[in-house]
Write a structure and sequence with these properties.
single chain, 8-stranded parallel β-sheet, globular, 41% helix, binds pyridoxal-5'-phosphate, 9 helices, 231 residues
Amino acid sequence: MFSIADNLENVRNRIEKAATAAQRDHASVRLLAVSKTRQASELIEAVQHGVHEFGENYLQEALDKITEMNDPSITWHFIGPIQSNKTRPIAEHFQWVHTVDRLKVAQRLSSQRPTGLPPLNICIQINIDNEDSKSGIALSELQPLARQINELPNLHIRGLMAIPRADADNTELQHSYTQLQNALAELKKLCPSADTLSIGMSDDLEVAIHCGATIVRIGTAIFGPRSYGQP
Ligand SMILES: *Cc1c(COP(=O)(O)O)cnc(C)c1O
C-alpha cells in the first residue's frame, strides 16, 4: 500500500546511505519535497512526517496551496520556469527560487521583494547538457550573470541548480554534476554565500549526493507517480 510516511522513510534512508557512502554528514543534504500536482492534503501529510520544505513548479497552483495551508513553518521553493511578467507573486510568497537564468528576472525579483522580508534565496539554473528544451544558462555565462545578480540588494545568491538530460546514464550524470560542483567552488570566490547545489531527483539522488548535492528535489519517490504536469 502506498503511503507518504513509508515513502519518506525510504527516501531518508536513501539519502543517509548515499551521504555515508560519500563520507558526508547526511544533515548536509536537505530534502525538498516536490509537490507539483499534489493536493494540499498530501502536503499536510508530509508536514506531519517532518517535511518543511516544498518545491512547486506552477505559480497559480502553488499560490493556492500556500494560501490554503497558511503554515509559516514551511519554506516554499519555486522550481519552475519563470515568466518575467509573473515575478511579483514569486518575490512575495517564496523564500527560494531555483530557476533564475536571466538578469531581467533577477532584477524584477529583487525590486519586487517586499521590504521587511529577508532577501530572496536564489539559485542560478544551469542548462548542464545544453538542451534546447531546457531553461538555464551555459556554464560559460555563469560568472558575468552572477556578478550582476550579486549587485542586487534583495537577492542572496545561494548556488546552482540543474536538471540533467532525462536519459543520461550514471557516468554522464557524474560528469555533469562534477562540472557543477567545480562551478560552485568558483562561484563561492565571487559570492561567499553560495553554498547550495540543487541537484538530484527521485531516480538519481545517490549520484547527486556523491557529487555534492546539498538540496535534493524529490517528487515521485515521496508522493507516487504524477498523473499530469510531468516536465
Ligand atoms: C518534478 C521535478 C522534480 C521531481 O522529480 P521526481 O522525478 O518526481 O523526483 C525535481 N525538480 C524539478 C525542477 C521538477 O520539475
